[in-house]
Amino acid sequence: MGTINVVKNIKLVHPSCVVIVKIGTFYNVYGKDSFITSYLLGYKIKEKDNIPACSFPVSSLNKIENVLEKNKINYIVVDKRSNYEVEHKQINKQENNYDKIFDYSTLIATRTVTNNQNFKKISTLLLTLLKLVV
Predict the structure, then answer these.
(1) Residues 6 or more apart from 115 whose CB is under 8 A from it?
(2) What local confidence, expressed as pLDDT, does residue 106 receive?
(3) CA distance 117 to 119
(4) Rounded CA gap, 37 and 116, in Å?
(5) Pick from 18, 44, 13, 12: which is nearest to 31 by CA?
């Protein structure tokens, strides 16, 4: 099973968690999660198989976790090498700002791209993202 399919299955069980996947010496986030990590941490969104994605080095995981916890966003860390077993997770039972941060991050991303005359690209990314959610 491919990484994207595994992430989709995890998102079915944990729809408001950022799913962080360790692949080699990098962690990757896909779909909606890439907009959240891009907004909060400034990572660039790239497309992998027509799906928005962000990557960051293994050495940055503590920083990522701290920022997600500070913003009260649930997350799950899995490792591809160990058959996608959960390495770590943080679930805020009282409050989870996942949807609020996602809505704001896509608004900011849309404004930024529109200002840069790349509206078609962000529209395509958002349409692809909506297909993942449905």
Answers:
(1) none
(2) 56
(3) 6
(4) 20
(5) 18
Amino acid at 67: V
Domain that residue 31 falls in = 3-133
CATH code, domain carrying 28: 3.40.1170.10
* pLDDT tens per residue, range 75-100: 888 887 666 556 556 565 556 666 66
Residue 109 host element (H or E): helix 98-115
Extract the tokens encoding 86.
């959960």
pTM: 0.68
* Residue 117 region by backbone torsions, left for phi larger than 0, else alpha for psi between -120 and 50, else beta: left
Q: How many Å apart are CA 26 and CA 57, to the nearest integer?
A: 4
Rounded Cα distance, 13 and 120, in Å = 32
**Average pLDDT of the residues in 49-67:** 90
